[in-house]
């Protein structure tokens, strides 16, 4: 389910001002230790600082000139450190040992796990690695803080969108789907929905790959492809365990899709994620999976499409008035441009010299009401479905993003970067 480069409220406390460790300070700190300490303390410090910075991933990329270390913060990779070629194998071996991987095997891809016990109570880390032309490469995925949940109101949903989602979450059965590309915050949204349903009177079960957040009161299952325990196999077993709510990490194949749809039709609430560009395109994905239109229409209650946009840095920004081109794009009368104030970030140490700090979600929520249901049964195209939903008041991703620009949360440049079709 791993999306989560995907935390919609990535502006954690560690990304504020006031003496926080930022890019330049971290670079200087690590460089000062390279020649003094071994790979163990260096790796430990790097992991500790990555958590403090709110990073979601750490990349260890071997190249001709040594090992390049990069952190992904707010969805963007930043170069932090370059180690000499002689240190590459030491650092990689240290990480593989911590992750329980075979340090003698360098020819095939491997997966590993660094537990929070090893990390002195910090969050778990998932490790993936494999051979490259210049040696082994490792990517560390820093799992979300299990004690910190993001409510629907904090995700970035428009109030009307949040109310619509809450309504469909409380439906007695059926599916709620979160769709979008990798790293768009789908998993965080599904966890937020699951938290709203989490009470002792219900049987809640998740099927994940991997389990990203540990939730009190929820039975969480991790699939294991090595023993052919996949989403479909796990879902079959869960359906025999009297569930009220099932969260499926990701619907990846026709078999899982068919089982999930049947579950949604038989009195179970199903939450899941799917890779689709926008809400209406989800219906096409289900059609491609071979699910009859009647079953799609009767099982899917709501589809949420989303993206993550970087937020203007609150510690280093400036106001400005949009020019004529910006006014036209935002739907503003150019003659009124001087009365409209937008914000843009100023590159500084506190924001990795990007002008941005933290992220917010933008959403498109498609409720499958009677008219949309009829259109699905009639095999209307995704474009026709999207048009019908827009006519019925659905806010598009582009419109939601423009509202964030107008409110000063993000910029036109960031909107274009993430929503290329909006350009």
From TrEMBL:
One of its GO terms (molecular function) is ATP hydrolysis activity. SUPFAM superfamilies: P-loop containing nucleoside triphosphate hydrolases. Residues 239-253 form the Bacterial type II secretion system protein E domain. Residues 1-22 are annotated as: Disordered. CDD domains: PulE-GspE-like. GO terms for cellular component: plasma membrane. PANTHER family: COMG OPERON PROTEIN 1, TYPE II SECRETION SYSTEM PROTEIN GSPE-RELATED. This is Putative type II secretion system protein E. It comes from Rubinisphaera italica. The lineage of its organism: Bacteria, Pseudomonadati, Planctomycetota, Planctomycetia, Planctomycetales.
